[in-house]
Known about the structure:
By secondary structure, this protein is of the alpha+beta class. The protein has three helices and seven strands. Helix 2 runs antiparallel to helix 3. It is elongated and about 60 Å long. The termini are far apart. This is KTSC domain-containing protein.
Amino acid sequence: MKTRAIKFAALAALNSLRREVRALLRKRRDARAATIITRAGRLAKMEPLAVKSTLIDAVYFSQEDGRLRVCLSNGEERQFEGVAESEVIAMVTSQSPGKYYIENVRGRFKRIAA
């Protein structure tokens, strides 16, 4: 009986720690994605866009230079350039943003180092 209680407490503590780590990683990612340096050496603001997807965790877009940063739920970040605003809006508002990203963004736009 005591073993079950100990296992439950350990799992609860582990889940709490996981949530805290994810929150810290999200804050770090948001701070990094908030500004980028353009080719001209200027700072450009990337706007966060709300997205509800199991594949995509967050999306940031800069209208100034057409850069798109996609943060995947596995922790990877992909950055693309030359993306039209209409394409980003279509991805974020589609029924399945992850599927739209795979089919219409990933192979179509030039990927740059994130």
